[in-house]
Amino acid sequence: MHRPYNFSAGPAAIPEEVLRQAAAEMLDWHGSGMGVMEMSHRGREFISIYEQAEADLRELLAVPPQFKILFMQGGGLAENAIVPLNLSRGGALDFVVTGGWSQKSQQEARKYASVRIAASGEASGFTTLPDPATWQLDPQAAYVHACTNETIHGVEFQRLPDLKALGSDAPLVIDFSSHVASRPVDWSRVGLAFAGAQKNLGPAGLTLVVVREDLLGHALPACPSAFDYKTVADNQSMYNTPPTYAIYIAGLVFQWLKRQTDGALAGIAAMEARNIAKAKLLYGFIDGSQLYVNKVAPDCRSRMNVPFFLRDESRNDAFLAGAKARGLLQLKGHKSVGGMRASIYNALPLAGVQALVDYMREFEQHHA
Ligand code: PMP
């Protein structure tokens, strides 16, 4: 018997192998006599866990040497303040608003800097992404912010914009919380990327920041020291006590990712191939059905978060109850959008998407 399939948008499913290993090591990590939660972050044992996790992530995501990897706390919403505190230098910022999360980001940044909306998908109800060729970029902007996968609205950039080609020298800041490690990243187009861990990396409480070195060292005086990227980088993310257990679990997830293969592909490339297959199966079924609908333009659809609606919304509760009874959990849509949402992150296997599609077909036939 397998565990139920968990479609939560986050905190989300963790690979079962990781949970089993963590359980086995809970009381005694590698003969140290200590559980990981009980270790000093400055001790030899935890430092080895930390260094392995960082090296594995750098390898998996092919992070170039001129980027620092920071393990912080505060989640995506704290980064909405921490990024402008570090990168705005008192200047103006450009935001591309493509859904609920980039909307929140631009609102928060207004506390620290002057904000312009360079492009917005709002007129389409966030069902399409504004074409980068139409973005109104300010050549003086300190950075351009985009959320590359909108968890609530289910839109995803299939390629990162090339700001240089659009006439801007500003660094691109991406919130990649909900698709980190699901596909490769073109770092040549990125200045800073941040992600809360609780979707594809591990437990809530850990925040990943990948930042180009030349962007460090310009924090506003009011920036809390524990959130000054340079201070964090200079102290190997141990200026303050880092979220040690979350880093350990993320490290196990990174090792799990490294073990994944798909034909000749391995690691993130294997995950990407699997994620493409999962998304194709689910969207293909929805598009061919009479009962379900996804409103996102096909070329903007997220591989990770699939919002969908029943054309007859009076059946929503029956749909969710039947899903739960079949071990298909947490399919209720975000309150701001309604309907359903299937989050199909790395840890959710193709068999889980197949089980969902089988149930959706059965439900449709039953209620025809
Ligand atoms: N950005 C994105 C894309 C998200 O999906 C989320 C959480 N769902 C956040 C930011 C906010 O993250 P947190 O709750 O960890 O602050």
Report what the structure shows.
The protein contains nine helices and 16 strands. The model has no long low-confidence stretch (mean pLDDT 97). It folds into two domains: 17-257, 3-Layer(aba) Sandwich (Aspartate Aminotransferase, domain 2); 261-366, Alpha-Beta Complex (Aspartate Aminotransferase, domain 1). α1 packs across α6 (244-259), α3 packs across α4 (100-109) and α7 (267-288) runs parallel beside α9. The chain is an alpha/beta fold. The strands form five sheets. The chain has a seven-stranded mixed β-sheet with strand order 2-10-9-8-5-3-4. The longest helix has 22 residues, at 267-288. Bound molecules: 4'-deoxy-4'-aminopyridoxal-5'-phosphate.
Would you list the SSEs in sequence order as H and E? EHHEHEHEEEEEEEHHEEHEEHEEH
Number of domains: 2
- From the N-terminal CA to the C-terminal CA, the straight-line distance is 31 Å
- The low-confidence runs, each spanning 5 or more residues with pLDDT under 50, are none
How are the strands ordered across the major sheet?
A: 2-10-9-8-5-3-4
Give the bound compounds: 4'-deoxy-4'-aminopyridoxal-5'-phosphate
- Counted by DSSP, the helix tally is 9
**What is the average per-residue confidence, as pLDDT, rounded to a whole number?**
97
β-sheet strand percentage: 15-25%
Named at the architecture level, the CATH assignment of the largest domain is 3-Layer(aba) Sandwich
- What is the CATH domain class of the largest domain? Alpha Beta
General shape: globular
Could you tell me the number of beta strands?
16
CATH homology superfamily of the largest domain: Type I PLP-dependent aspartate aminotransferase-like (Major domain)
Largest sheet descriptor: 7 strands, mixed
Helix content: 25-40%
Structural class: alpha/beta
Write the CATH fold name of the largest domain: Aspartate Aminotransferase, domain 2
